[in-house]
Design brief:
By secondary structure, this protein is an alpha+beta fold. The chain is 20% helix and 46% strand. The chain is built from 1 helix and 3 strands. The radius of gyration is 13 Å and the shape is globular. It starts with a strand and ends in a 7-residue tail after the last strand.
Length: 54
């Protein structure tokens, strides 16, 4: 099951927040590193779906 992860990447003009769809935190790290090689980043956390109201 894939989840959404919030990732902050440091870019020359400032930081950028990305939403990454991944099956794990480590996969989110790998995807961020591949998308922005050599740039520092941090996986802020998983974004859980908002449960439906009864």
């Amino acid at each position: 099951m894939r989840s959404s992860y919030e990732v902050r990447v440091e870019l020359p003009g400032g930081s950028k927040i990305l939403l990454v769809r991944a099956s794990s935190r480590s996969e989110a790290c790998r995807m961020a590193a591949e998308a922005h090689p050599g740039r520092p980043f941090v996986v802020i956390g998983r974004i859980d779906a908002i449960p439906a109201l009864p």
